Amino acid sequence: MKDYYKILRLPSTASSDEIKRSYRRLAMVYHPDRSNNPNAHEFFSEINEAYEILSDQNLKSQYDNLVNSQGDFFVEAHTFSENFDIRRNANRTARVYRATRKTKDIITPYIVKLYKYTAYLSVVLMSLLLIDFIIPGVKYKEILKEKKFGDGNTMEYIFRTNNRTIIIDQDDYVKFKEGDEFIYNQSTIFRFDRSLEKVINEVNTTFDLPGNFFKYFNLFTIVVLAFAILTIRAQKEQDILQFGTANFYLSMIIIISAVVVY
Questions:
Q1: Verdict on whether the full-model pTM lies above 0.90
Q2: CATH architecture, domain 136-212
């Protein structure tokens, strides 16, 4: 068994203050980041191990009794070593847990605030999106000046008028010819593409546009709004984190999708 007093360069009668001072001095000398000694890492580990034993009154007492006992030294030394390893591992686990818990306790209140603010913003944004979906859009009378496939680096079906460029589905592309008159329908608030309207065989026909955000995300918007309201109404921290996480990530999906479509 190791002589921990010798490792710390102390007599067996050293006091707690002497043990602490010697440990700090040797730790500074043999710290791997400071020392050029090739065995510094090994010495540093032994110094820490010795200090863990001698700085703990219970372990120090067991160690001193073991060293001074007249019994089966090797059996007792082995038992002590096993008990020390178990206790050291438990202490390390406890320290990691306390550090993790402390970090969580510091960060969690800020996350709760972030989720609350995000929920309020989500309610406003999702409500505006739903209103934009419900109210009639803005309609513009257009004349198709040019239709083509591909524009620069894009491989899309495109209509050009005097006022705008419109991306249209392949199936609807063939139903229009240059010179046709049609109605271009755009959402009122966010100006998303909605549809084209054209009279075919005396019947007013509507063609949904690929840029129609509400075609894909209308129900999704309602789900996000529900999570946002649940986050705002939640009182328990755990509920806020649960609903807030869902609302936060779903809102990000909505916002990114809206930016791409726009």
A1: no
A2: Beta Barrel (2.40)
